[in-house]
C-alpha cells in the first residue's frame, strides 16, 4: 500500500517502497521453492535492453556520465517485484482498485489546483507549493506531464473493468475524476495516448464499447468547441505552425542528426542532454534539452539501432504474452480478462503518448507502467495457500 500511495503522490515514497520490496524479494529468492515459482516475465527482452544500454554507455564519449544516466534500468525491477508480491487474481484486482483510488485522489488535487488557482503565491509554505504553476493540473508532482502520464495509463487499465460492470458505482466516479484531471493537465500527448488506448479497448471488448466510443467522441467534440485553453489545445494538435508542434519537429530533426553520428550504439544514455546544443537547429527556440519529445527516437539516439530493437522487443513480447494469458482465461472470467485487456490498453496509451513525450524517461510514469504490466502475470500465478498447516 505504501508503494501504491507513492505511485500517485511521491516518487521518493514509491522508490523507497520499491527498494524495500526488492530487498524482501531477493531475500525470499534464497528459497529454492520460491525461485521455482518465479515466472520472470519478459526476462529475455529486458536483459537485451539492459545489455544494449550498458554497451552504449561503456562505448560513449563519457562512459561515467552515461552509466549514471542508465539508472532508470533499476525501475524495471518493479515488473518482477510486483508480479511476485501480488499473488493471484484477487490480489491483482485489489492492487488495481487501490491504485485507481489513489490516482483519482491525485486527479482531484489537480482539479482543485486549476479551479482555485490564485496565480503565484509568494512566500514559503504549503499553499505556495500547492499552487505553484497551477495553470495546469500537476497534483503532487513537479510538472503536469507526469500527472497526465500517470492518469492516462491508469484510466486505460480500469476501462475494461468499467465496461465489464465491476464495482461500477465507485469505479465510475473515480474514472470520471481521473478523466477530468487528465483534461485539466492540457497535455496533448497524453490525450493522444488515451484516445489510442480507448480505440484498442473498443476494438476488443464485447460489452459497452459503443457507449464508450460515443461518450469519448462527445467529450472530444465538446472540448474542441469549448472556448478557452482546453479547446485551443485540442484544435491546434495537428497545426504545424503551432509553437509546441513546431518545436517538437525541430527536436526530431536534431535528434536524427545526432543518431546519424553513431547509428548502431547511439551517443550513450544521457547523451541528448549533454550534446543537444551541438545539433540544435538555428531556428529552434530551445537550444538545450534533456530529451527530444519522442520515446522511440530518444532510445534510437542514445542507444542506437541495437537499443531500439531491444526496446521494441519488450513491447512486442508483452502484447503477445498478455494476449495469450487473456485467451487462456475462461470466457466467464470477466474480471481476469478485463485485467489483461486493461494492462494492454495502458501499454498502448503509454506508447501512444510516447510519440510526443519521452515518458519512458519519466520515472514516475514508467514505474506505474511497469507495475500495471506485472498484473496479468501476477493474476496468472496461483494465490498462496494460507490454510493452517499448508505447505
Termini gap: 26 Å
Give the overall shape: globular
Count of spatially separate domains: 1
Ranges where pLDDT stays below 50 over 5 or more residues in a row are: 385-391
Strand content: under 5%
- Oligomeric organization of the protein chains: single chain
Q: What topology emerges from the helices and strands here?
A:
Blueprint: H1 2-9, H2 11-28, H3 32-37, H4 43-58, H5 63-69, H6 77-85, H7 89-115, H8 126-130, H9 144-163, H10 168-184, H11 188-204, H12 209-225, H13 229-235, H14 243-261, H15 271-279, H16 295-328, H17 334-353, H18 363-380
Helix pairs in contact: 1-2, 1-7, 2-6, 4-5, 4-16, 6-18, 7-9, 7-10, 7-18, 9-10, 9-11, 9-17, 9-18, 11-12, 11-17, 12-13, 14-15, 14-16, 16-17, 16-18, 17-18
Note the main attributes of this structure.
18 helices; 391 residues; disordered C terminus; mainly alpha; single chain
Task: Provide a descriptive summary of the structure in words.
This protein is mainly alpha-helical and 391 residues long. The protein has one domain. 70% of the residues lie in helices and 0% in strands. It contains 18 helices and no strands. The chain is globular, with a radius of gyration of 21 Å. The two termini are 26 Å apart. The model is unreliable at 385-391 (pLDDT under 50).
Short summary:
This protein is mainly α and 391 residues long.
